[in-house]
Design goal:
399 residues, alpha/beta, Rossmann fold, Dihydrodipicolinate Reductase, domain 2, 2 domains, nine-stranded mixed β-sheet, seven-stranded parallel β-sheet, 18 strands, globular, binds NADPH dihydro-nicotinamide-adenine-dinucleotide phosphate
């Protein structure tokens, strides 16, 4: 029997708490966050068993260490914001607790999506005999595990990877983001970036796009973005010749975003407002809908998968692996929309993999470095069934 502490009580934290509570392997669950009332609301929504709650400012390592030392979890699940990753890794090292997160560290004043800061913890986790798992949501997360599964069971070499992420849901609001608005807008206003023939190529934001056919949804315009798992996948699968990430946006969403950018409302540097420094994007976050509040009326599906091309037994092969998730079904089950659900389920399952020893080994790991089989064997039962399409023409042309 294991103990788990969760940090972060937003949309994703809600799903993680519900899913951990459904796993009998966890005898004690502690849900913590900056605002304890949000933890209490989530705990009250879980009728099957008691979930403990506590307040913590995860930027303050000593506060987290004190909680870890008194609660003594086997693993900490970080679903707060990317800004807290390093402080929480430090706290885990101090208290001797395994660590898992769903998003790479970002310095607040510099939206850089790279693993360098967290990979630098490799020796410290290794020497302490502790495991740190980075990026165990859906993307990053399941997309890396899907790719590891493809390499283990379907290919001798993977040459091309196109990760496709479609949200075909409808929430009825004019403009809203599906997870933390500040983190989301920082990500999609960055230049696009992809890997081809040994080089990283940078293009203006949202400048490359094309329709992609998603299962049970149909064609949706998909935009090339830089996404953090590209960095780790290119590193860990050295046969890759091309790796790209695509995400769907409606024209209306892009129009709103362009207006917000033009007005300077997506800026992350402070401006002087009548003597008070204000970061426009932080103010915008306060004005936009809380992503969790979209859940009650959200309809439609998400569809996220990996189009892969490579070689098996000397023959060229194409392969697609994906999950579709229904917003309304997720809400009915745990009171969250599908973006939170598809992130929280893998985080809870990853915590189980660490706690039961399956994914426990000293060091810092991205998910594609771990055995995909035990994880994928449980993912469907945990609420995210996955499907494979083998040998169909790829929507992406070969290089
Ligand atoms: P929310 O903004 O809804 O929730 C974040 C939570 O973290 C809030 O409860 C917030 O507290 C808490 N928090 C913020 N700062 C601190 C702090 N200093 N100490 C303690 N708690 C803090 O975000 P989401 O739930 O939508 O997303 C959570 C994480 O999941 C993010 O890191 C996001 O990037 C990641 N994500 C990953 C995806 C993937 O597929 N890999 C997809 C979607 C999201 P408060 O209530 O006080 O603000």
């Amino acid at each position: 029997m294991a103990r788990v502490m969760v940090v972060g009580a937003g949309g994703v934290g809600r799903v993680v708490a519900h899913k951990l509570a459904a796993l009998e392997e966890f005898e004690e669950i502690l849900l913590t966050s900056r605002t304890v009332e949000r933890c209490n609301q989530i705990a009250e929504s879980i009728s099957s068993r008691h979930v403990q709650t506590a307040q913590v400012d995860a930027d303050d390592v000593s506060q987290t260490v004190a909680l870890l030392k008194s609660f003594r979890p086997d693993v900490l699940v970080n679903v707060a914001l990317p800004y807290q990753d390093l402080a929480l890794m430090d706290a885990c090292l101090n208290a001797g607790v395994h660590y898992l997160d769903t998003a790479n560290y970002e310095p607040p004043d510099n939206p850089k999506f790279e693993y360098s800061w967290q990979w630098a913890y490799q020796d410290r986790f290794y020497d302490a005999g502790l495991t740190a798992i980075l990026g165990c949501g859906f993307d990053p997360g399941v997309t890396g595990i899907f790719t590891a599964h493809a390499l283990k069971h379907h290919f001798d070499e993977i040459h091309e990877l196109d990760i496709v992420d479609c949200n075909a849901g409808s929430h009825g609001r004019a403009f809203a983001t599906n997870f933390n608005p500040e983190i989301n807008i920082r990500e999609i206003t960055q230049p696009g970036r992809y890997f081809e023939k040994g080089e990283w190529i940078t293009v203006p934001p949202l400048s490359i796009h094309r329709p992609v056919d998603y299962p049970h949804i149909g064609d949706r315009e998909s935009y090339l973005l830089y996404h953090e798992e590209l960095e780790s996948l290119v590193k860990h699968i050295p046969t890759l010749k091309r790796a790209r990430f695509w995400m769907t946006f409606s024209q209306s969403y892009i129009n709103y975003l362009q207006v917000l950018e033009t007005l300077g409302l997506t800026r992350i540097d402070p401006i002087d407002y009548e003597g008070t420094p204000v970061v426009p994007l932080k103010m915008l976050k306060k004005l936009l809908p809380d992503p969790a509040s979209l859940a009650a009326t959200y309809t439609g599906q998400t569809s996220i998968g990996c189009h892969i091309r490579g070689i098996k037994d000397g023959q060229e092969k194409t392969y697609y692996i994906y999950n579709n998730c229904d917003h309304a079904a997720a809400y009915q089950e745990v009171g969250a929309q599908a973006i939170s659900y598809t992130t929280g389920v893998p985080a809870a399952l990853g915590a189980l993999m660490v706690a039961n020893g399956t994914w426990q080994k000293p060091g810092v790991f991205n998910v594609e470095q771990l055995d995909p089989d035990p994880f994928l064997a449980k993912l469907g039962d945990m609420g995210l069934p996955w499907h494979e399409v083998i040998g169909q023409p790829s929507p992406f042309e070969a290089i």
